[in-house]
């Protein structure tokens, strides 16, 4: 649990560090900071930076929420392979089960805010943005399926649909990031 928390904190700290350094480099650019709107194509740099940081928070949230699946599959094998760590593995599995839904909803909220801020900073939609929008829409549908699944855990088709939507969401998110 502490390692997961440290990993999330590291990702957020890295995002803040990168954001702060790019801002400092921008301000040191021969005193042309006043012309930043012209360089960004009319966009607002603060919105773009905040949107980027929130986008990485969405990626961290999606990754943390996803961690429940490999842990459930490998949990018993890990506990038998590492008997001294059995209690820690059980705690980690309980933690991911307990926080899966709040982290998943947070990832959806972060992804939505990211999209809004990035649109406000660019005020145009290209293929990258449409892929991102598709990813967020699929994430919204998967979130609704997840809520329905939390009420009735025995529905296998609902679980399969939830996983398939999230797999497609993840693929689209990766393509969005790479573009």
Description of the molecule:
There is one protein chain. The chain is mainly α. The protein has 2 domains: about 45-125; about 125-179. Helices cover about 85% and strands about 0% of the residues. The chain has helices at about 1-25, 35-40, 45-65, 70-80, 85-120, 125-150, 155-179. Helix 1 (about 1-25) runs antiparallel to helix 3 (about 45-65), helix 4 (about 70-80) packs antiparallel against helix 5 and helix 6 packs antiparallel against helix 7.
Search tags:
single chain; 179 residues; mainly alpha; 7 helices; 0% strand
Number of strands: 0
3D shape: elongated
Helices, by number, come to 7
Rounded to an integer in angstroms, the radius of gyration calculated over CA atoms is 19 Å
What's the arrangement of secondary structure elements?
Blueprint: H1 2-27, H2 36-39, H3 45-66, H4 68-81, H5 86-122, H6 127-151, H7 156-178
Explain briefly what this protein structure is:
The chain is mainly α and 179 residues long.
